[in-house]
């Protein structure tokens, strides 16, 4: 069992996904599995997924019929074997210490969930986004972060 399962749902992201996958490979933290969920892509994404899996045993590819983002994430969750799970979108990239920091904080606090800040970059600006839970009650956090109002 890996410490962290990274789930990357992919649909027609051939132009952006390599930066994401390369940033995962560049992590200082090595105890992970990376589940690439190809959600019925019509571009070269499936071949790119297969190439990463062929070059690193931590990468596992699942090709499935298109079902949408939530379906692809749930598909990955059902196959994840890590102690913790994290989602990366294929247009994300993360700092080399990200997984070290998140895993250390989760273990230190015996946490079920770790929420972290992030940067949002578009062609015009980079914006720092601070995420602060509305409370430390798990029902409130789940409702605030995952249920639309």
Summary of the model, kept short:
By secondary structure, the chain is of the alpha/beta class. 35% of the residues lie in helices and 22% in strands. The protein has 2 domains: 4-114, Spore Coat Polysaccharide Biosynthesis Protein SpsA, Chain A (Alpha-Beta Complex), CATH 3.90.550.10; 115-149, no CATH class.
Helix and strand topology:
Layout: E1 4-10, H1 17-25, E2 32-39, H2 45-55, E3 59-64, H3 69-79, E4 84-87, H4 98-109, E5 118-121, E6 126-129, H5 138-146
Parallel strand pairs: 1-2, 1-4, 2-3
Antiparallel strand pairs: 5-6
Task: Provide structural commentary.
With 149 residues, this protein is of the alpha/beta class. It has two domains: 4-114, Alpha-Beta Complex (Spore Coat Polysaccharide Biosynthesis Protein SpsA, Chain A), CATH 3.90.550.10; 115-149, no CATH class. Helices cover 35% and strands 22% of the residues. It has helices at residues 17-25, 45-55, 69-79, 98-109, 138-146; strands spanning 4-10, 32-39, 59-64, 84-87, 118-121, 126-129. The strands form two sheets. A four-stranded parallel sheet has the order 3-2-1-4, sandwiched between helices. A two-stranded antiparallel ribbon has the order 5-6. The longest helix is centred in the C-terminal third of the chain and has 12 residues, at 98-109. The protein starts with a strand and ends with a helix. The mean pLDDT is 91.
Sketch the topology as an H/E string, one letter per element: EHEHEHEHEEH
CATH level 1 name of the largest domain: Alpha Beta
Ends: how far apart? 36 Å
Number of strands: 6
Shape-level CATH architecture of the largest domain: Alpha-Beta Complex
Q: Unreliable segments (pLDDT under 50, ≥5 consecutive)?
A: none
Number of helices: 5
Strand content: 15-25%
Superfamily at the CATH H level of the largest domain?
Spore Coat Polysaccharide Biosynthesis Protein SpsA, Chain A
| Secondary-structure-derived class | alpha/beta
């Amino acid at each position: 069992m890996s410490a962290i399962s990274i789930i990357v749902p992919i649909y027609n992201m051939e132009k952006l996904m390599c930066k994401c996958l390369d940033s995962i490979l560049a992590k200082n933290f090595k105890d992970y599995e990376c589940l690439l969920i190809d959600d019925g892509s019509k571009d070269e994404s499936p071949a790119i997924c297969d190439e990463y899996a062929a070059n690193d045993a931590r990468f596992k590819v699942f090709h499935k019929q298109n079902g949408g983002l939530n379906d692809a994430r749930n598909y990955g969750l059902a196959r994840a074997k890590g102690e913790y799970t994290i989602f990366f979108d294929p247009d994300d990239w993360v700092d080399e210490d990200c997984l070290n920091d998140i895993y250390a904080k989760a273990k230190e606090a015996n946490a079920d969930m770790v929420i972290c800040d992030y940067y949002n970059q578009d062609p015009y600006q980079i914006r720092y986004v601070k995420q602060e839970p509305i409370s430390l009650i798990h029902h409130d956090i789940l409702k605030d972060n995952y249920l639309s109002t």
